[in-house]
Design brief:
By secondary structure, the chain is an all-alpha fold. The protein contains 9 helices and no strands.
């Protein structure tokens, strides 16, 4: 599936998502690697097959094999970290905040690509997964690494749009299933 096919799959009420996807696909505030890796990591975090397929079709070829692996690794490691650190933040018991995580996270120290790019992808996935602790941590590293608020915002805009497209298509699939079941009943 292509990006154009993905946009065509969206219902008319989601026209804003189509427009956002078109403009963000060429977002000039980010390097090609930052933009493509953000789309890939966010597609994986979206967990929606057609979104992942279309975004991989559009952006995977714009990344080196190492960068593609790193974008995948960002989605993977943040799927774990966002749950863990969101728990430590939301739990009212203070001792969880002081306990060592004791979870392997080696890829964060050696992602195989520029550290800033990897951190940007981790931040975008953290925005999708709703982990404030991880958002704050990655945002600080990005600022210290020289990225502007506008560049960071661009990655989060990609995350928001990719997630919204996935949610819309997933919702449409479920409503179609409900309509089929209602007719069959």
């Amino acid at each position: 599936m292509s990006i154009e096919a993905l946009k065509d799959a969206l219902p008319e009420y989601a026209k804003d998502l189509k427009l956002n996807l078109s403009s963000l696909a060429g977002e000039a505030l980010l390097t090609e690697q930052q933009r493509a890796g953000t789309f890939i990591a966010c597609a994986l975090a979206s967990r929606e097959r057609s979104v992942t397929s279309a975004i991989f079709s559009e952006f995977a070829s714009k990344l080196s094999p190492e960068a593609l692996t790193a974008a995948r690794a960002a989605a993977s490691i943040m799927a774990m970290n966002n749950i863990y650190y969101r728990f430590t933040h939301l739990s009212s018991a203070p001792d969880y905040k002081t306990l060592p995580a004791r979870l392997r996270m080696n890829v964060i120290g050696k992602p195989g690509v520029d550290k800033v790019d990897f951190e940007l992808w981790c931040l975008a996935v953290s925005a999708i997964n709703g982990c404030g602790v991880c958002i704050d941590s990655h945002e600080k590293i990005l600022r210290d690494g020289g990225l502007s608020a506008e560049q960071i915002q661009a990655a989060v805009r990609i995350a928001a749009t990719v997630h919204a497209i996935a949610a819309t298509l997933d919702g449409e699939a479920h409503s179609a299933d409900l309509a089929i079941n209602a007719v069959a009943a």
